[in-house]
């Protein structure tokens, strides 16, 4: 939802009001954290809130624990985690073995094949998709949130540009053109994000001797 709020705030700062629609009856508190990389901070600065978040970062006390409904059989979740640990120390294995079942949570993983970004429809008339709806990806780069902020800032910039030049009053046509340009600009960026994240995850989880050697000795220090 933060990409919608970022878009709304960006438009408001440019003098345009908007309405954000949320499918839930109330604001939901879920997830553990939102990682902000350099691209995310640039977009937060662009909408004028980066300095506010930086000023508050030392006051963050840690994760928020909530009672929530388990979405999967906790016993199966625990067994899956234990089966994926591989050769880890007894201390690490003990942490998971002693974890109570009610504390095991499994969330669905969303993914879009990257070639769908090249041939699929991103916008149609005055409707477009951004954020996770546009580029659901595996979490291996932890850049889904920052990428959504990129979408928001670029969308606001394109809308502001065409609306300011719209002297003939054909606002509908101007907005459609801006969304079509957004689709062209973001198509290859999203293709790159989805593909790279999948490859990074594949390398991290691969059991092959060659990939393990390259991962542990050469790729561990590479930032993507």
UniProtKB/TrEMBL annotation:
Record-given protein name: FAD-binding domain-containing protein
Tell me the keywords, alphabetical order: Monooxygenase, Oxidoreductase
Supply the InterPro entries for this chain.
Answer: FAD-bd, FAD/NAD-bd_sf, MOase
Family, according to the entry, reads as follows:
Belongs to the 3-hydroxybenzoate 6-hydroxylase family.
- Report domain FAD-binding positions: 121-164
- Biological source species: Salvia splendens
MF-aspect GO terms: FAD binding; monooxygenase activity
- Pfam family membership, one: FAD_binding_3
């Amino acid at each position: 939802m933060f990409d919608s709020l970022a878009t709304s705030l960006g438009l408001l700062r440019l003098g345009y009001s908007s309405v954000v629609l949320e499918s839930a009856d109330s604001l939901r508190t879920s997830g553990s954290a939102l990682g902000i990389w350099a691209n995310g901070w640039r977009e937060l600065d662009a909408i004028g809130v980066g300095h506010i978040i930086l000023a508050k970062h030392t006051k963050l006390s840690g994760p928020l624990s909530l009672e929530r409904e388990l979405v999967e059989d906790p016993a199966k979740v625990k067994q899956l985690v234990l089966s994926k640990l591989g050769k880890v120390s007894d201390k690490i294995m003990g942490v998971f073995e002693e974890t109570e079942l009610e504390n095991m949570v499994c969330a669905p993983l969303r993914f879009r094949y990257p070639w769908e970004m090249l041939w699929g429809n991103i916008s149609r008339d005055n409707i477009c998709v951004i954020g996770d709806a546009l580029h659901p990806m595996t979490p291996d780069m932890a850049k889904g949130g920052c990428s959504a902020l990129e979408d928001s800032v670029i969308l606001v910039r394109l809308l502001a540009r065409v609306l300011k030049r719209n002297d003939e009053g054909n606002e509908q046509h101007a907005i459609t053109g801006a969304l079509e340009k957004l689709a062209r600009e973001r198509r290859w960026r999203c293709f790159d994000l989805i593909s790279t994240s999948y490859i990074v995850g594949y390398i991290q989880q691969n059991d092959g001797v060659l990939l393990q050697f390259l991962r542990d000795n050469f790729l561990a220090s590479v930032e993507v």
